[in-house]
Each structure stands twice: as structure tokens, then as C-alpha cells.
Amino acid sequence: MNYFSPFHLIDLNDLPPLSRINPAILKSARKRWLVEFDLQNTTTISVVNKDLDKDTILKHFDSFSTFTAETWKMHQVIYENKGLLKFLEQGDISFFSNKKNLTSFKENQDLLPFIATSCEQPLSDILHRNYREKEVVLLEDTLETIDLFPIESESQFYRKTYRFIKGQVKELEALIEKGETEYIEEHYILPFVENRSIESLNSLPSYFDSVRDEYGLALEDMSLILHNAYRRTTFASHILKRGLSLKLGEDTSYRLNHVLQQIEPYAKAFKDKHLAIDHSEISKIWSIIHLFILGALVILLGLKTML
Predict the structure, then answer these.
(1) Whole-angstrom Cα distance, residue 307 to residue 240?
(2) What angle do CA 61, 80, 149 make, to 5 degrees?
(3) 215/61 Cα distance (integer angstroms)
(4) What is the mean pLDDT of the chain?
(5) Residues 66-116: tens digit of each pLDDT
(6) I want to staple 130 with a disulfide (CB 3.0 to 4.6 A). Which of 17, 139, 144, 189 is the partner?
(7) Does the pLDDT at position 256 exceed 60?
């Protein structure tokens, strides 16, 4: 659930010092909203572009009654920082694109644990979007922001992106299974190994090590299908090399290296064979061109002699 500032329902300017907020003040503010529902004769009231019903507003006031003076202080800090407030309520990460904001945010150690739960959803969505769209710079900026929070929160920030990568592995596995019985066009495989895909995956922290290894092993299986079933050895070699550019665990890296060493001689032989064929074809073409030129000269000379 996104953050909702109590000061959308309680006017900060009407309050005594936050340390002296008491149940009577909250009761008075609560009553004003109930009166507003009666005056408007409506079931919902728009508050900062959100339609809130009576029950929702009453639940907010119930939670306000549990706030300590320190809690009110944290909410005031957020409310007075409109960029941070917009991020927490709407997921607008532009606040963090300003390094000055990021520095002040990092230095406020009391605020970080207070807003961690409210940051989980928007930062999780933003991280997932940046990874999915392969926006490497934005991805790294988002990770830098997440890194500010307590380590115990990391799974909440990373889970959505982790599940997306697991989905990519399943897509690769489906292609591998399909490749056992039919030819797979390269354009289905290349998006998994293009530079931005590899860079995005490598940008992710150690939390993603296991799924990064799964991704690498799926590329290994794909290369084996390409080589063993279709003798597309050069392409298989390319897939393995791209896999080895991932930040893999030692065992996974060893496996991909081992397979690459096994098929690389075939890839080289295949390439040399095609070079030889190409040179032979070029020689044939030039021979035909020479014969054509000689034939044309003979005809021209013959015509000249007749004239």
C-alpha cells in the first residue's frame, strides 16, 4: 500500500506543536470529516486525487491515534519535502535523480527505517520496469536508492524483478524444448544475449546470484541444442561467450567454459570450411567474368575486321 500523509486529513497549520497532539485534537478533526460527508451527501470524498469513503477515513484516524511524537515528526519531515512525498504516494522517482536529494536522504538515518515499508512497492515496481526495459543507467540509480535501506528489506524490493528473471529462464527452457524437434530462428534467441540484457542482469546485486546462474545454465543448454541437433556451432559458441560475460558462480562459469572448449574447434573448422568455399566461389565468378570479357573482345574484333 502506498504512503498516505496524515496531513491530508489534518491541517498542519491548525495543530499545536506535534509533541502536544492529543486524542481531543484528533477527535475534532475526525468529526469535521464526518460532517463534510453529511454536507456533501456523498459516499466518497476526493483527497489528493484519491476517492476515500467514510470507513477509509475513519481507519486513518484510528491509526493516527497510535502515533508517538516521533512518528508525527517523521510524517512532518515527509510532508514538507514535496519531492519525497510525491515519490512515496505516487512512485515518482525523479526525487532521487537529484544527487543532493539522495545525499540528504542518505544522511537522515532516522527516516530510512520509518519509510522502508512505504518505499517497497514503488521501488519494487520501478526496479522491475527498468530491468524489463533494459534501462541500465536508471536501473543502477534505483539500486543505489534501494541500497540505502536496511538489509532486511531487500527481498521486498527485489522479489518482483527476481520473479521476472525466473520467467525469462522459463522462456529459454521452452525454446530449448522446442529446439529439440524443430529449428529455432535466431531472432527468438538473440534478445536474451544482447548487450543491454547482459548488462542489466550484471547490474543486479548478489541477491540475484542464483537466478543469474540459472540463466547462464539455460544458455548452456541452448548452445548444446544448437550444436548437437543442428550443427549451428558458430551461433552456439556465440551464445556461450555471451553467457560467460555474466557474473556467474565459479561452478556455472566452469561448466560454460568446458562446453565452449569442446565445441570451439568445430566452430573454427566450420568457419574455415566456409571461408574456403567462399574463396572457391569467388574464383569461379572471376573466371566467368574473364571469359565473358574475352568473348566480348573477340566479337568486337570480328566486327571490326568485317567492316
Answers:
(1) 69
(2) 85
(3) 48
(4) 85
(5) 998 889 889 988 998 888 888 888 877 777 767 677 677 777 778 888 888
(6) 139
(7) yes
Strand, coil or helix: what is 98? coil
- In angstroms, rounded to a whole number, what is the distance separating the alpha carbons of residues 146 and 19? 31
- Residues 6 or more apart whose CB falls under 8 angstroms from that of 196 comprise 134, 136
Residue 192 DSSP one-character state? G
Q: Which one-letter amino acid corresponds to residue 53?
A: D
| Cα–Cα distance for residue pair 277/284, rounded to 1 Å | 11
Highest mean pLDDT: which range of 38-42, 81-85, 141-145, 174-178? 174-178
Which residue is it, cell 466518497? 44
Over residues 8-18, the pLDDT tens digits come to 998 877 666 66
Kind plus residue range of the DSSP H or E element containing 65: none
Q: Where are the alpha helices (DSSP H) in the chain?
A: 23-40, 54-64, 69-80, 82-90, 94-97, 99-107, 111-132, 136-146, 154-179, 186-189, 195-203, 209-230, 233-244, 250-306
